[in-house]
Structures are given as C-alpha cells and as structure tokens.
Amino acid sequence: MTRLVIDARLAGHSGIGVYLDQMLPRVVPPLGSxxxxxxxxxxxxxxxxxxLGRAADIIEWDVPPLGVRNLASAPPGLAQGDLLWTPHFNVxxxxxxxxxxxxxxxxxxxxxxxxxxxxxxxxxRWLTAIRxxxxxxxxxxEFTRGEAIARGALDPARLVVTPLGVDRQWxxxxxxxxxxxxxxxxxxxxxxxxxxxxxxxNVARLxxxxxxxxxxxxxxxxLVARHEGLRNIDREALSVLRxxxxxxxxxxxxxxxxxxxxxxxxxxxxxxxxxxxxGLPALEAMAAATPVLAGRAGALPEVCGDAATYCDPWxxxxxxxxxxxxxxxxxxxxxxxxxxxxRATAYTWDRCAAATAGALDAALTALRTASAR
Length: 373
Description:
It is built from 14 helices and 13 strands. By secondary structure, it is α/β, with parallel strands linked by helices. The chain folds into two domains: 4-165 and 348-368, Rossmann fold (3-Layer(aba) Sandwich); 168-344, Rossmann fold, CATH 3.40.50. Strand 11, helix 10 and strand 12 (292-295) form a beta-alpha-beta unit. 46% of the residues are buried.
C-alpha cells in the first residue's frame, strides 16, 4: 500500500523549522488515507506525536539531516511504493524511493562562497537524485523555481510554486506602550534585523552602514541573529560587532511572542540579504505593520513588492542611504506599514498547505495507479 512518509528531522531549524511547524498539522490530516508516517529526531518525536495525534505514525530517525552520514542513510520504515516528502534538498541517496521535495533556495550553487565550503558537492548529489526520482518539487517562490530550472536543471513540469505564509500572531495589534517608536514618548527608536548570522544575510555590511549613519540618527540596531552552532557562521560580522558595540544589541534567539513584540516595537526592519529564496522575516515584519528595508536580491522584491523600500545589498553606502531614508521620513514609514500589512494578508499557511496537500495527493494517486498495473 502506498504511504506518505515525511522527513521532519529539520524541525527547529530556522526557516525550515517554521515551515514544518506550520505545514504538517495542516497537510497531514487531509492525507490520512495515505497513512502518513513522520520521521523525527528523538528530541522532537514526542512533540509531533502530541500535535498530530492519530493522524500520523511517528518513527524515530536520529541521523543528523545535514551531516555526512545522511548521504548514505536509508529512511527507516520506508517501503516499496511509498512517497518520501523531504522539506529541503537533503534527500536520501540510497534506494530508489519516489520523492516529493521542497526547495527553499539553491544558494550553494548560486553563491557557493556565501554558502560555505563543501556544500555544493552534496547539493549536486542531492539534485541528481531529485532529477531522477522526484514526482513533485515545491518551490517557495517564483525566484526559487527559476533557480531550480536554471541551476538545478529540474523539469519545469514537476515544479509547483507554493509561497510561504505568515502566522496570524504577527497581525495582532502591538501593545499601546510599544508602538513603532514614531512618537516623542519613545526616547530611542530601534531598527531590527532578524535572521541567522550567515554570510548571505549580509550583516557585516549592515553594521558598517549603521556605523556610518549613527551620528545623525538616534536609533539602536537590534540583531536577533542566532550565531551559535551554525555550520557557516559570518565571522566577519562577529569581528565587526566587537569593534562597533555602541548602540548595537545582539540577541541569539527569542521565544515567538518575544520576537513578535520586538519586531512590532521597532521603527523599521532591515533585511539586506544578498540572496533569499523567500524572505520570511520581511513578510513577518510587514504583517506586524513594521516598515521594511530590503536588499534588492533573490525573492525579496517578489515577496515585498511595492510594500518595502530597497537598497543595493552589495553597497554599504546604499544600505546607509536606506537606513537614513526610513529613519527620517515618517510619512514613508506610515505608507509602508499600511501597504506591508495589506500585502502580507495574501500569504497564508492554509493556502500553502492546501496547494501542497493537493499536489502530494496527486503524486500518491499516480504512484498507486502505476503499482496496480
């Protein structure tokens, strides 16, 4: 019997963890007739069992999902005829099981220096398996779909664009005492960055840009940036931070409610990335009615549209120009806050999940039909 097997080992990993957290409870129940199986790390097995209940069986698979062992590890409990859905391009290289894959970006091929040494080899191996075995590939943006075709040589007929969503919590009104630092009641407004401290997030240039303008604006720069336990940490940014500590706060991680409160209280958010397959922190800031300064790169213009202002992420001077513009123009901030919240309403996890479940059901049906012949 054909089953849907889901690799959920990346639960808790930055954006992909958010994807799994939001998608599985929405996708698994409608596909109950396919006897879903969730493969989970030991640390998250109990959580998935609690959240999904009888909608799925949970099997422990504790091989690190992005480690060397993963390249030659076979998923446990995967039977002939099952469809394996992986939320990233780290597909198993052993066996011949048909695949469904979610692609968030192809950074290791597009900009290998930003992705870190040794990543492109594994990604090429994974893409070879995806080309041969994938029945459907979910791309989180049109930009990522273009990269999948141009860089990954994937069949356009198998690609389905499923834009990510934004949790409704981000739309909740900010506490009255916090606001967006646009009144005289707030002595020192803040600029906020949210993202991993990795080279493609471009934090080093952001720090230099902030240092260039901090004598003419009163703001603090808050970096909510996990910087421990990363495979490819931005050491240049950490070095710059040690020399520019004044009015800059580095926070490694925050609980969801605290993160939302921080973003809501910021006067504006900045995401000067050199590459983004989607750009979820920008969308979340827009949902919170926090104006956004985004790098004109990757999928950010696609996601933010005319509801953000942009900078050249390769130029410290242009990032500084963008910081000054938003810091000094209340009418621009008001326009972007309203436009951002309106645009964010179009991105829902329910819509993403419905498109994903429909494509998975079609792939599973085709597999069952083929096996019955």
